[in-house]
Amino acid sequence: MAIGLISVLWDFADEQLALDLDADPTFGIKRVHVTHREHEPWPQDLIDRFMAEASPRLGFAVRLALETGLRRSDLVKLKWKDLKGDHFEVCQQKTGEPVLVGCTEELLAALKTMPRLGDTIIVSERGEPITPDGDQAQASRNGRNRPFNPRPSQECGQ
Length: 158
Prior knowledge:
Elements: H1 2-15, H2 44-53, H3 56-68, H4 72-75, E1 83-84, E2 87-91, E3 98-102, H5 105-113, H6 135-140
């Protein structure tokens, strides 16, 4: 568990805080999984503290995740054109199934305040799309941890 936590924090610091870090110190360490456990949701007070400290872009990304319930792989591919009035039309990467994801009035209001810096709703501080597996961070480090390996996008019905 500690190895996974360090890795997640390392990726967060690299991707979201734009720190110039060396290679992930946990890269290559075999992880031992005893049992599969579900992630426990963050308590509301932790969410509130995080949102108070996060950049507007990161705070919005977390809000979008919390309010839509989308997987990270679907969230980072969510495009402005997917917003159809009061809902998103999304093709789930994992299942390939199309789904409609409703938006609250509050989320719609927040979406209106976000700058459209690219096709995708969630972008890096440099306005670039974020990839589902954090490949953007790996590419920016010129493969010091592992090679950049872009994955082909999947479309519904294929």
